[in-house]
From TrEMBL, chains A, B, C, D, E, F:
Domain Carboxymuconolactone decarboxylase-like: 26-106
InterPro entries: AhpD-like, AhpD_core, CMD-like
MF terms in GO: peroxiredoxin activity
Gene3D superfamilies for the chain: AhpD-like (1.20.1290.10)
Name assigned to this protein: Carboxymuconolactone decarboxylase-like domain-containing protein
UniProt xrefs under Pfam families: CMD (PF02627)
Organism: Flavihumibacter petaseus NBRC 106054
């Protein structure tokens, strides 16, 4: 597994445990709901993960982008498809999305290399 | 055609003409590029329009939402699918997306009634 | 009841019914969770509603602001306290919060007059 | 004076009076400071007003945009210069800035007609 | 003092000195005003710091979050209260607030350990 | 060249090559258009770069800020002028812009030292 992927996953798991240990019910239920949101329904998991990705990109949340990139990779999104998601994000959100696209591109290369 | 749809289309066309009459090349080229972004490619037009919609929702741009709702309707997105896009937008973007979801729901009802 | 309050409540109720009628489970559960978030806990309802208000102000969501203004009014927040919430929102979020503060001030006057 | 200009100025003045009547010192001092920010210094008033305009556009604050459009007009910004500010805002902020650009263009036409 | 706290404080102090050395009056006065905003008034300092925290969380400003976490800690906010602030921020601002909540949780653990 | 400048330039160039190698036409054309936006026209390059900077600051995009700081430096913007741009950004965008102003100030010191 690439270094960026490892670091992201480790920190995420470690801090999620800290947060959940405080037993705030709203936080716990929001996280469950977050998981349900991307379950297959009228739209496929693949489509929903691309929706989650483009939303994360225009809101410029690097960790959210990494999370959805990992899921898109698992769901078989191709590099060509991914860059079309990037294009929508950059056109809708403007050039301020470019630095996040750079980091997304770097993370995607690691995901592909880790296959 | 419903009143909201008519009003949106009329104002949009009228002001686009004003803007384009000023011959700013960057604006013109950005608008052309915006159109190209949603052309069929590795992703279908339908998927791209849903991506444009969710991005517009989390960025809370009512007019952008209306535009992409119109396109989603043309592309045959079902109400069930649409509400799954709404769900992603509300989970990623939080409850501040709810008022925009209300206006989106109202506009969608008009689109369905206009068929 | 003032005209702004009536219009806000009517539209909100009408569109919430449209949205809930579509039976999207994520939307329903998010709305329940939203309600729970402001229940009394380690913090009072009054404090939580002021937190919801300041968050809505810096995110510049007029309808969210109206909703929390109504709740703050119910919870006995005074005008002096309210304007200290406004001050935090304007300092943290900058002068782009001012137009929303104007509309918030107008709505608050109606809430006070409606007592 | 055009109808949009009149409405904007009237509402702004009326609500500013409500807000200032509450004597919140932070709000008062922030508003004074806001005025000072655009005074001539190492940069001209004209340049500062264009800076205020582009910032308001990418943050998508219609009332802030109207305010700075009025000031840009007073400072002799030409239509060609203005549309170059619009271009920067649309490229940096993306197509979500377009609906705000439409409203800005409409307001600018009124400002020109009011000369 | 924990490493994150030390690093945040050191960098903040060092760069504040650079900025203030340039004698820009607007910046100086804004910073003074920022301090005044959180002074005790109709609302307690503790409440105001929680308002500043939730505003910083939904606007996703990690350094602002750290600053207000430090102040909340000084003001005796409990972990249970803090997580209720986190809950409001995550519900209002959506799952894009989660990564910032992780970093906030990490910083809070350091603050508690530093007592 | 200072360490921050070197690191920013190297990463930017390396990832731009990755992104461009994927041949997504929308991305390529957006980047060309981005360059054209700041060409001399009715406004000077210097003014346009300050517009790009203030827009990047209120949108809180550190890498975009660095890019425009480099360009402002090339265009002969003085430190006094620069801090007036900072002032507009902090007033319009609020205290959440302060941490980005700190990083901007640090980068500017490197640019000056590199002359």
């Amino acid at each position: 597994m690439g270094a960026l992927i490892q670091e992201f996953n480790d920190y995420r798991q470690r801090m999620n445990e800290v947060i959940l240990s405080k037993n705030n019910l709203v936080m716990k239920r929001l996280w469950n709901l977050d998981t349900n949101t991307y379950d297959a329904g009228a739209l496929s998991v693949q489509t929903k993960e691309m929706l989650g990705l483009v939303a994360s990109m225009v809101l410029r949340c690097d960790d959210c982008i990494k999370y959805h990139l990992g899921k898109c990779h698992e769901q078989g999104v191709t590099t060509e498809q991914l860059y079309e998601v990037f294009a929508v994000a950059n056109i809708v959100g403007g050039t301020i999305v470019i630095p996040h696209t750079r980091r997304a591109a770097e993370y995607w290369e690691e995901l592909i290399a880790s296959r």
